[in-house]
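Researcher: Last one for today. Full complex below.
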Amino acid sequence: MSQENSHFLEEMFYPKSIAIVGASPNDPESGWMGRLINFGYGDRGEIYPVNPKATEVHGLKAYATVRDIPGPVDYVVFNIPARFTPQVMADCVAKGVKFVHVFAAGFGEIGTPEAKLLEQQLLETARKGGLRMLGPNCMGIYCPESKMTFNIDFPKEQGNVAFVSQSGAESMRLVFLGQDVKLYFSKVVSYGNAIDLDAPDFLEYLSADEKTRVIALYIEGVRQGPRFFAAIKKCLQKKPVVILKAGLTESGAGAAASHTASLAGVKSVWDAFFKQTGAIPANTMDEVADIVQALVRMKPPRGRRVAVVGRGGGIGVIAADICERAGLKVPPFARETRDKLTQLIPEAGAGVRNPVETTYGMGGAADFYRRGLSIVDEDPETDVILIHMAIDVYGSRTPNLAKLAAEAAATLCERVPSLKKPVAVGLFSGGHPDVIAAVTAARDKLTGAGIPVFSGVESASRAINKMTNYYEFAGKQG
Amino acid sequence: MSQENSHFLEEMFYPKSIAIVGASPNDPESGWMGRLINFGYGDRGEIYPVNPKATEVHGLKAYATVRDIPGPVDYVVFNIPARFTPQVMADCVAKGVKFVHVFAAGFGEIGTPEAKLLEQQLLETARKGGLRMLGPNCMGIYCPESKMTFNIDFPKEQGNVAFVSQSGAESMRLVFLGQDVKLYFSKVVSYGNAIDLDAPDFLEYLSADEKTRVIALYIEGVRQGPRFFAAIKKCLQKKPVVILKAGLTESGAGAAASHTASLAGVKSVWDAFFKQTGAIPANTMDEVADIVQALVRMKPPRGRRVAVVGRGGGIGVIAADICERAGLKVPPFARETRDKLTQLIPEAGAGVRNPVETTYGMGGAADFYRRGLSIVDEDPETDVILIHMAIDVYGSRTPNLAKLAAEAAATLCERVPSLKKPVAVGLFSGGHPDVIAAVTAARDKLTGAGIPVFSGVESASRAINKMTNYYEFAGKQG
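Model: Here's the assembly. Have a good evening.
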């Protein structure tokens, strides 16, 4: 069980029973019922299929209406067309349900007077009945701890990242991007039209959620502006908040108006908000995932000076440029550091100034990690270590490629935890299947050990910069 | 055979015989000899292993010295330590060799007086003997047409992209990045220390090379400045040139000085050069690959207004922002276009303004491609079509995911060639193996049909912007 959060949403994230209205024996395994069963919710709560035409769904007794369910019902999913929702909502009120999740679309977002009226009626029924509503037009909740999910492919692993998303598809994208690097979630909420429960509710809950260390937010438009901004500030007092605010350009604002009828807001207002609060802006979902990974897995750096380590001279130069363009610096190491590195890798010639060019072959990389990383860690002129690994350049025919790449990754797993500086790995992918397999294995190994892995130097440096901005801001706030 | 290019380097790219000095029976298949044999060079020219201690290497008769080879020798690879190179160079001069490629490092780049002297001696011998030299400290030539390669994993397919690279590892990276999207090369030169043949030589050759449609260049430092810039301008009169100029930041300049002892040059000079010549600047090797792909595969657009098409409302808003930040616009479609799209996809509600939100499921995507793309193509308010495909969001359990994704890709392959507007596809990857397989198959199918595929909207829009800049500049030049 969760450590109790006294916020009223605790029962929404950890319901003791869930009813699926509109569950059908014909639903695929990936439907609402199948997901819950597959995810193991049955081990911690009751699942009630509701369908007047069925006696049993996926092996569980079906009920004609929510009112017919014998035990108490905490949470109800409306997996039914919009037009049937008012009656089911009335049933839920009669039953004393606490939370409903209206999955169906076809409400305010389509803009017709009828649809808006339907939405309004639904809200009134819920309000009068003292019941809180998620949606309509949303995917709802993913909470591995309470075994709730809206996608059968989502990982069962619990993590400490929360994601509040106005878009259902984007909520899935972030979970999958996270899964690629073994970054897992405490809670994800896709909240859709938000005619009742809205972003500030989730943020207020998450600010006090001990299971959540980092909060990410995808948002197009803001209602209840002051409450929304106050909720973010409340979160920021305790943990970082990464925000993908879509619709900040003219093109994007037009698109947002079409998508969720959101007034996207003025860019200057948001710029000022980010500057004043220390909330972390991101422009793409990949960037959100990268920043979150940096925040969860990297120690706060002392500053923004990067030590770059890896095989290849050209990539070192490119990496230094990328770092500086991202807002970081790649300064020369202290004389003492350079002397020690020259002793270690005399054949590298000039490649010890920063970037460090490790010697040829993956074996050379592992060897440098084993003996050289601690020298870089002691360097007084740099604050962060960025290791780039380009397994593709070694080529598929490198004898024992898989073994060498695994050894390099294993050596990092062994050495990184003892380093004082935060470490990031930029792991380039490759085209040859053998190289892809070696890259994937290395990424799994590294991220499994909690070492952050990015798709390259550009994404790594961007994330390091934004993470550093956050800590600098937080530091100034005392 | 190649159409004759009267430039003297034609014989370097298409030698009739190659000797490998330092070839050994113990070399792996991926060594210099094995690569040439594996690549099929033996079908078009003679391969001579040179090794005084061997009688045969990989099934071919070995010679003690280059002088002992019976027939004429056009091209010699020095696969030997630096200290042995002067003697072999003298042999090559005596033999009447036309080109030598000094693979070995340990010359000017390590900075010792001895190494610099060795380099100087090598150059003098070559010059006196009328022989031209590639290197030292470089990978040399990859030319699928003449079956020369420096990496056994390189594709045998010929393409129309040339790459001139000061870095060996980066030359490999671009070839592999290209291979991922079936983008192939006419010629790649890794030229290293360039004490004799240098970037301007290759550029002058490529400007007249009918096999090359787009030129990419990775460069850290420039010697012979005026000749170099003149050579690029000469290329630009006939074809686009994409340049990754590394070392343009303070951090990068320091790194470049260490890597190739290059004076990285002043950023303002390069900024002015790019502005005045229409050469296309890129910051990362991925960006080089993306821009090249856009140039090779997309028609010149009339302007920079993008029609965005794909499943998912949130990604549409994000995409619009990304496009505008990249220098493009996502304006509303003309009224007529919107009316036609509304008729086609009434349930999409507002998602016809631009971005277009295709209906749910990959089947819906294929259906839209079949019936809706031509409407978008006729829209007068947009110039380029950017299709984003997020197969991951459909999830691995989508019934027939692979089949649906394949159908979507096949439909694009069928429809895109008849469209008047240039088309780009942003294909997001995914975490689940089944999704990755579907993405990979879709990418292979699309790129096989010559449709450009990018890793997402960000990389696509960046490439479209830079391609458009190029055509706008070229258009102004008349």
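Chain B has a mean pLDDT of 92. The radius of gyration of chain B is 25 Å.
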